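Please review this pair:
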Amino acid sequence: MNDEPLPGERAAAMANAAAEAVRGLNHAAGGDGIGLPSAAYEILGALSLAASRLGPALAEITRYLDRALADGILGHDLGDDPCFAVDAAGTFLDDARLQAASLAGDLSAAQIQISALNAVASLKEEQP
């Protein structure tokens, strides 16, 4: 039995881990989970970085689909020509890549806007 991962399994596992990390962030940030402006600043910076890293992954998916189509290794469950699905997916992936870049920029801009914020002394004293 071969324990080597199938092509794409590692990348898919990493994407699933990223989705779970965002889910965890949503839970951790809820209620009073952020607590300090410095935490909000750090979270925005990390999310901006994460969003900026989506573009290359999306471009790789587009390249894979184009290459697989050109190599004739794609089929379609309904018997349709896979070129239409690949073309449509490519359009959506290109748009998503641009939106990810825009999201990264907006998050970075928000981070800059709060960079001078601080917690009042009484709040700082309450933090462990």
Summary: The mean pLDDT is 93. The first helix runs from residue 9 to 29. DSSP finds five helices and no strands in the chain.
